[in-house]
Amino acid sequence: MVVLAEQTDVEMKNADSPAAEGEAGDSKKDADLLSIQDIREHVRQIEKAVQNKEPRFILRVLRSIPNTRRKLNPNVLRGIISGFYTHSAADKDALLAFVEEPMETESSGSHRVRSGRSSVTPLLPEVDAYIHLLVLLKLIDSHKYEEAVQCSNLLLQKVTAQNRRTLDLVAAKCYFYHSRSYELTNQLENIRGILHSRLRTATLRNDFEGQAVLINCLLRNYLHYSLYDQADKLVSKSVFPESASNNEWARFFYYLGRIKAARLEYSAAHKHLVQALRKAPQNAAVGFRQTVQKLAVTVELLLGDIPERQIFRQAPLRRSLAPYFQLTQAVRMGNLQRFGEVLENFGPQFRADHTFTLILRLRHNVIKTAIRSVGLSYSRISPADIAKKLGLDSPEDAEFIVAKAIRDGVIEATLDPERGYMRSKETTDIYCTREPQLAFHQRIAFCLDLHNQSVKAMRYPPKSYGKDLESAEERREREQQDMELAKEMAEDDDDGFP
Amino acid sequence: MYLTSASGIISLLEEPTAEPKIFALKKLNAIVDEFWPEISEAIKEIEILHEDKTFKEQKLAALVASKVYYHLGSFDDSLKYALRAGNLFDVSDSTEYVETIITKIIDLYTKVSHTTIKLESKTKGIRRQLTGFVNRMFKICFANGHYRQALGLAMETQRIDIFETAIVESGEMNTMLAYGYQLVTHFMHNCTFRNNILHLLVRLYEKVAEPNYINMCQCFISLNDPCAVAQLLRNLQQSTEEHALMSYQIAFDVYECTTQYFLRRIIQELSVSPDMSVFDKNSTIFRNDLPAPSTLMPSVSPISTSNSQSTTEEKKKHEERTKNIISILSGEVTVQLYLQFLSRNNNSDMFILSQTKEHARASICHNATVIANAFMQTGTTSDEFLCDNLKWLAQVANWGKVTTIGSLGLIHRGREEESVTLLQSYLPEEEHFKSDFVDAGYLYALGLIHANHGEKIIPYLQQQLKEASNSMARHGGCLGLGLAALGTHCQDVYQQLKSNLHQDDAITGQAAGIAMGMVMLGSKSSEAIEDMITYAEETDHEKIASGLAVGVALIMYGRLEEAESVIATLYHHSDPLLRRCAMYTLALAYCGTGDNNALRRLLHTAVADADDDVRRAAVLGIGFLLCTAPHQCIAVVALLAESYNPHVRYGAAMALGIACAAIGLQEAVALLEPLTDDPVNFVRQGAFIASAMILIQHTEYTCPKVKDFRSLYAGVIADKYEDPIAKFGAILSQGIIDAGGRNVTLSLQSRAGHLNPLSVVGVLLFMQYWYWFPLALCLGLAFTPTCIIALNGQLKMPQLQFRCNAPLSLFTYPSPIKKKKTEEEAEEERNVFPAPVLSSASKLCTRRRSWKERKQCFTDIAKANENINDVKEIHHQNESEKSNKITSKNEIEETNAKLVEKQRLHRNKYDTKTENVSEILKHIFCILNNPSRCLKQQLKFLQVVDDSKYVPLKEVSRGGIIIVRMNAGAKEIELESCFGPHLEEEEPQPPEPFEYIED
């Protein structure tokens, strides 16, 4: 009865895939009613979660936000708002102000969701925040960014005023979209202070999800303005909560990868990016995976490795990774000329991907790879030939570059200036070293870690351990049968020996 | 321009001159919330600045450092620098930073102040800083009028001085003192500090002009200071009439929650007091002389000759008052009143028992039926069941006889005057019927009659024990003596029991071990402890050791950390019996405190010990430990109740029974329900007993499950295939749930909120029924009558009425079980009568759910009933048997006025539900006549009728015996007829069998 916690989720922020608002236009009344039903069900789930102090249910609701988001339209929103905000007209009007007038005049929204006595009592803060969040999402989706900012400000006020552990998960989402709406209006730097103060509060209250989201928002904020130094300091001074959700971990690793790559720590960056890819949802969030993969390819190239061809063949990534494929080919062949062409052709796209500066650094790698292949194929070669092969201007240049490459440990060779050639050393058998052992160890450690994490992610349904045990009724029955059997046997015995 | 980096400001810190540094620090202080990751890189420089003595703004540097450390999550460092920042750290600020640091500081201060003994020079500095800081906090508290917070904080941090100022400055001394007392008794588990605070409270009480004497006396009881109580009583009774009445009230309270030793000391103190002839009636003096009373008293009052006439009169009066007080303290009054109450109101349902008797075939069920009868009839003096079933009774053999005869003791509990003759009348006269077991039972029964009140019988019991010729009689004698001399700390009784123990006879030794503990209850006598533990280690008899285990625990009753040395030696002992002793000792020493440390140890043993008995005892102990916090107990025990180990499950059930006794909590019942279906017999037994303990005296309205459980017991008993062990539990449960003629409850706490030692002992001994059935009878000690009895200055019951603001039907006795009809009859009845449920009744049920709804009832009625006269009439009917018509009339008018008023408020909302007005009205409130049954749950609805002639001296809602003062105007005292049989019974009981025995 072990259920793996589902991990499909949520659009990642980089996947600004075209929002599905086109469908909203032809949505029929039935569909609207159905969506209202759905949202009512969500609200019920949230109420259940609050009553039982069981965050699982809220999590379930929040996981379905991408779906819900697609169904939102003014009709639905009006229906929900007027259905739930029965206790306070002020709150209702404040929210309705953000929702545009429905196109159809016939009102479908006036059916009461909450009836009788409960209509007077105020909504749970969790439900309030959730509905408000839906309104905000709708605003973002319909590109009304200015209004979205106002709406998210209101929402944040509501959320900050409460101190409830059950609100944490919803609040975390609110922080994210608050940050998002500011990003869309290009005023991210204004909310840094708020994010910092919320992060402090979340840390003090052991609100792990909030902490994770806020750290990510802050990192994104810094990276948006290329404040790599600040971001790096934040990462080194704060602790990312262990129990954050996978998506937050994925984001965090991605940002970490970017920071590390910018700070020339390529192997660390690569490690983080690979982890980000692993943590990211496998079937959704294509945009996120594309972005991460781009950066990962670049970093791998910077490390001097050549990414596997398979990566570029994956269907969802093929198109977006095409420039990087060419780049890889250039690097792999050590063809400086082709490298220059790629840079020229795809420069703007690289810039948009935030990888341009990194790719510029690749030039050295191209040369190094070329030298390495030269070193592998020739046991002895003159600088003039090298210059010709690499397309360099003079043999002197080639000699200097080779000297540097030797010093960096790119190739195992010696320069003999008197006789005018470079001599490569015999390659050693790598299987004699500890290298394979280390590699194996790394893989084993990874597998064990994966195993442990999946065990941790398992959840056991409550109180099911007693199910297999005999119930009292069954026991009575069995005992009674035993007794009767014993009696019968005794009687049989009597019959046998009169 | 928006600031993107703090590095520019940070670099200013390295400037050689002071000015830019100060500027930088000020800047940093402002932006630290956002740029802390960067600033934290420069924390070294800031720290250096702080330590630089020549630098002017050292404190500012400390504040910045503190904030940076706060953001880094290193609260210890943050706290250190916040303290050094001194006044720059603004305590009254409401930012998260300040709040967090303040809580940390208070935590640290609390920790530091708890370990005051060893202070190194380094911590001293911090301590000074902390003290300064906390003092600032207190000042703010006082300034804002948060006296209660200050009081709590002062107690937590053990600051007696602040504790005092908080109380004195609050301006409402009496409430604050009461609050302080409550805090100390509930949350302070350190003996020495608690006593210090209690002394302080007493000192403050003395300063108050008209202190709350009852609370003051509670302090003395907590301090275990009989002399002070005696002094207080003497002073009060020498003062005005009202004070004298107050002294009676206090005496009743004292009797209810203290040991015999304590009472005896008070009585000694009072009777020895030299000043009966010379006293001053000037009431101010008695207040001043409290600190040093005995020296002051005689010297003050020069009696003038002209006054001599009046003084002799006064003297007489005071002698009488002293006599009254002593008679109250000796318990005679209380015992008599309770005996009367229980015997007059006996409402037990004999049919239940006779039904049970039919099904009780196994000998242990037989035994259980006898015990259940004893529970049902505790103190009611009704031996009907036993007399009716003499032949059936004759089946008992051996120790069953002890139980049977012992049960007579419980039935006649409190009939002390004629106890010996009464019991002997039951005993067989023929020589050949007499057996050693009968003697044992006889002595045990005597002990039960005189339990905790054995002044008169102790010599007789001692004599009997000395003459006893065999181990059975000695067993009974020891138990009886122990019960009678409970908590007297009497040395010669102890020595006699000890000599019995040293005979090294298993049966005698077991009883002697328990009895020694009972005699020395809560004395912490190191000599006794040493005797008992060494003997328990040496003896070969398990019985003796288990008896001694209980005994040792009893000696350490309520001694908190003073019992630690004993617990430490026994906790890891190799002998499981002694480990069990450690568990009992832990449970009793910390009984009712919920001490975390003790709880941790009990829980650990409950899951880790190798011996089942020890584990069971440990879980049981949790019940005792948390008996004042039933909800907590439920939470702690919930998992244990699902343990794989049946002994732990049994223990969990019992722990619930003990901690939630008579509270009827749904959660507790819900935990027990699955246990009643447990596959293991004795777990079911435990679950039955525990459920009965929880549901005692509950009606269907206060706990709807009660009916299910009653029928469950009956079902289990009647079930042919059910195991006798489980049946045993079900039979006992029937006895417990209807105990004392349905007029007693089970509680480890006395009405004032103290632990009641008698109840605790009773329950612990009852739990020993696991090993020794006759001990089951001891649960009778824990039963307390649920009554409200008002007494006047002459200790007589005046005619007076209480008003209970809830329908009587919520709290009435359950209806007697009807005899099962034969098939035909039942069929016929079904045809003739439809379901006999009134529509109004069902409506009532739904309406009664909550008090709020009940109020709604009020409005409904009022609406329908504009005509006041109608209502009046109904009331007259309702109270036709009561004589006091004038009172009720006035009252009805008043209530009706209220009703009309409410009606106006609600007129618009509710228009329906106007029928059956009279039916409902009867249930709204009821009038109780003076000595009356009043359940625990009912007490909170209780008040004195509005224009009563009498004023109670303490809140009526406490229940029990309450002294009332007559209003100045009122004259007549109509006394309730105290004695005599209950009028409503079909036939008067025959006089008790009486035989004249010539010696």
TrEMBL record, chain A:
Keywords: Proteasome. The keyword GTP-binding does not apply. SUPFAM superfamilies: Winged helix' DNA-binding domain. It comes from the Eukaryota. One of its GO terms (molecular function) is enzyme regulator activity. Residues 465-489 have a biased composition (Basic and acidic residues). Residues 250-429 form the PCI domain. InterPro entries: CSN3, PCI_dom, PSMD3_C, TPR_PSMD3_N, WH_DNA-bd_sf. GO terms for biological process: regulation of protein catabolic process; ubiquitin-dependent protein catabolic process. Acts as a regulatory subunit of the 26 proteasome which is involved in the ATP-dependent degradation of ubiquitinated proteins. The 26S proteasome is composed of a core protease, known as the 20S proteasome, capped at one or both ends by the 19S regulatory complex (RC). The RC is composed of at least 18 different subunits in two subcomplexes, the base and the lid, which form the portions proximal and distal to the 20S proteolytic core, respectively. This is Probable 26S proteasome non-ATPase regulatory subunit 3. It comes from Gryllus longicercus.
Automatic annotation (TrEMBL), chain B:
Keywords: Membrane, Proteasome, Repeat, Transmembrane, Transmembrane helix. GO terms for cellular component: nucleus; proteasome regulatory particle, base subcomplex; proteasome storage granule. Component of the 26S proteasome, a multiprotein complex involved in the ATP-dependent degradation of ubiquitinated proteins. This complex plays a key role in the maintenance of protein homeostasis by removing misfolded or damaged proteins, which could impair cellular functions, and by removing proteins whose functions are no longer required. Therefore, the proteasome participates in numerous cellular processes, including cell cycle progression, apoptosis, or DNA damage repair. It holds the Pfam family HEAT_2. The keyword Membrane applies. The chain crosses the membrane at residues 769-791. Residues 296-310 have a biased composition (Polar residues). Belongs to the proteasome subunit S1 family. Residues 786-973 form the 26S proteasome regulatory subunit RPN2 C-terminal domain. This is 26S proteasome non-ATPase regulatory subunit 1. GO terms for molecular function: enzyme regulator activity. The lineage of its organism: Eukaryota, Metazoa, Ecdysozoa, Arthropoda, Hexapoda.
